[in-house]
């Protein structure tokens, strides 16, 4: 019996996604890490890992979804390391007014469960469909709809609370 | 939800969307591959070094690698942390206070020992002996993000810290695209030898070697360090099963 083998991913395919989608990757990861330069490093590192590990892509799902998972894993590692590391990656100046609506939403965004937060970011910045988000987060499409709905409800309630 | 939209826009306001560099992605992938090859090579070299006598370079290893000190205020907190950890011989991911990193970096005495073709070559002392080395290539956007540290470099046991770049081909079938690294005083040149016996050498100057042109496009068999008399004093074997 002949077993059909999927040809391995070519570097040019990963490069094409990089060239086409770099801005949305870096926007999303900046929102995840709240640090633009760190996000840039994470996206670069994520694509470099994808390039090195391209032979492990088994063709289950899309190539872009697979790359998103790698990049988000790098971001998660970085976030965990930063949480343990008292050396601040970025020192910020200025004052936040916790009563301002924007700051309230920002706090609420930070407080969202990780999957909800990522779903919001992937939907908003990367304009991924529910199916694509499901693939990246490794959940079912229906779960994505429920996850986004829950996130929006939380954020809307918070916003109304501030307005009152 | 327009407020949410504006908050999301603001969250990503500082995203460096115009700083895409595919070249950097490729360079990172190559560096990682080079590190893997270096690990394999280091294992082989440890065995080979026992078989090759020191040939009298031990006396030449004192007071090498002096250079221009790097001011610590030129390094970011992250760079300080990575250098400090590597010089102290601990995992860079372990947390350290800024003070601890600064103390480690101070003891490490990071200095630039040479520049070549726009690239800068740095060494730092390693706690417990030996050196850490790193190369900042021209246009490198993440300088000082990786080091090669060894308690045995520089010594007759490890007279070169090879940082060569291996290009096309698998990890088991390496082709050198850039012959580059650090060498102890007793090393006059470093040579790449291919499976078919082709050779290309780079002279050592200021304790570094670099060659990027006319390198054989063939599978590499070994990288050898030669003394001033042209005798091989150390080999890094890149063949599975050894080079004999």
How would you sum up this structure, described in words?
- Chain A is mainly α and 164 residues long.
- Chain A folds into 2 domains: 1-93, Rna Polymerase Sigma Factor, Chain: A (Orthogonal Bundle), CATH 1.10.1740.10; 94-164, Arc Repressor Mutant, subunit A, CATH 1.10.10.
- Chain A contains 7 helices and no strands.
- Chain A has helices spanning 11-33, 36-52, 63-84, 101-111, 114-124, 130-137, 141-163.
- The N and C termini of chain A lie far apart (70 Å).
- With 244 residues, chain B is of the alpha+beta class.
- Chain B has 2 domains: 22-58 and 156-237, Sandwich (Immunoglobulin-like), CATH 2.60.40.10; 65-150, no CATH class.
- Chain B has helices at 2-11, 22-51, 77-88, 98-108, and strands at 68-69, 111-116, 119-125, 131-136, 148-150, 160-162, 165-166, 176-183, 189-194, 199-203, 208-211, 220-226, 232-237.
- In chain B, the strands form 3 sheets. A 5-stranded antiparallel β-sheet of chain B has the order 1-2-3-4-5, covered by helices on one side. In chain B, strands 6, 7, 8 and 11 form a 4-stranded antiparallel β-sheet that branches.
Identify the notable features of this structure and list them briefly.
heterodimer, A: 164 residues, mainly alpha, Rna Polymerase Sigma Factor, Chain: A, Arc Repressor Mutant, subunit A, 2 domains, 7 helices, 70% helix, B: 244 residues, alpha+beta, Immunoglobulin-like, five-stranded antiparallel beta sheet, four-stranded antiparallel beta sheet, 13 strands, 27% strand, globular
Strand order of the largest sheet of chain B: 1-2-3-4-5
CATH evolutionary superfamily of the largest domain in chain A = RNA polymerase sigma factor, region 2, helix turn helix motif
Summed up, the domain count of chain B is 2
Order of helices and strands of chain A: HHHHHHH
Distance from first to last alpha carbon of chain B = 71 Å
Radius of gyration of CA atoms of chain B, rounded to a whole number? 20 Å
CATH topology of the largest domain in chain A: Rna Polymerase Sigma Factor, Chain: A
Series of secondary-structure elements of chain B, N-terminal to C-terminal: HHEHHEEEEEEEEEEEE
- The CATH architecture name of the largest domain in chain A reads Orthogonal Bundle
Number of strands of chain A: 0
Taking the sheet with the most strands of chain B, its summary is: 5 strands, antiparallel
- In the CATH hierarchy, the third-tier topology of the largest domain in chain B is known as Immunoglobulin-like
| Structural class by secondary-structure content of chain A | mainly alpha
Text of the CATH class of the largest domain in chain A: Mainly Alpha
């Amino acid at each position: 019996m002949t077993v059909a083998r999927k040809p391995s991913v070519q570097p040019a395919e990963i490069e094409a996604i990089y060239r086409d989608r770099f801005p949305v990757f870096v926007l999303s990861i900046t929102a995840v890490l709240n640090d633009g330069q760190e996000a840039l490093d994470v996206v670069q590192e994520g694509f470099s890992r994808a390039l090195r590990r391209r032979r492990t892509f088994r063709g289950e799902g899309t190539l872009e979804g697979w790359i998103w998972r790698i990049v988000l894993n790098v971001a998660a590692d970085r976030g965990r390391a930063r949480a343990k590391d008292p050396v601040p990656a970025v020192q910020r100046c200025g004052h936040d007014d916790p009563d301002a609506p924007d700051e309230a939403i920002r706090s609420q965004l930070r407080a969202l469960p990780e999957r909800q937060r990522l779903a919001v970011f992937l939907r908003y910045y990367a304009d991924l469909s529910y199916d694509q988000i499901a693939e990246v987060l490794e959940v079912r499409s229906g779960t994505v709809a429920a996850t986004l709905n829950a996130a929006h409800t939380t954020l809307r309630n918070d916003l109304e609370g501030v307005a009152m | 939800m327009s407020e949410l939209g504006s908050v999301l826009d603001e969250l990503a306001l500082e995203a460096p969307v115009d700083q895409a560099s595919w070249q950097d992605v490729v360079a990172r992938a190559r560096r990682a591959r080079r590190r893997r090859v270096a690990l394999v090579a280091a294992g082989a070299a440890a065995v080979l070094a026992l078989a090759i006598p020191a040939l009298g370079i031990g006396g030449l290893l004192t007071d090498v690698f002096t250079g221009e000190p790097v001011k610590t205020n030129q390094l970011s907190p992250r760079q300080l942390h990575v250098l400090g950890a590597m010089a102290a011989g601990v995992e860079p991911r372990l947390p350290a206070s800024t003070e601890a990193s600064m103390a480690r970096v101070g003891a490490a005495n990071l200095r630039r020992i040479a520049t070549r073709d726009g690239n800068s070559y740095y060494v730092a002392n390693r706690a417990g002996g030996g050196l850490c080395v790193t190369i900042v290539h021209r246009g490198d956007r993440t300088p000082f993000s990786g080091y090669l540290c060894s308690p045995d470099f520089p010594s007759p046991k490890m007279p070169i810290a090879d940082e060569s770049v291996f290009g096309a081909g698998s990890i088991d079938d390496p082709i050198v695209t850039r012959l580059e690294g650090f060498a102890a005083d007793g090393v006059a040149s470093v040579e790449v030898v291919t499976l078919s016996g082709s050779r290309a050498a780079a002279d050592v100057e200021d304790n570094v070697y670099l060659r990027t042109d006319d390198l054989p496009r063939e599978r590499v068999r070994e990288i050898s360090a030669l003394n001033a008399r042209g005798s091989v004093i150390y080999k890094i074997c890149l063949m599975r099963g050894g080079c004999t």
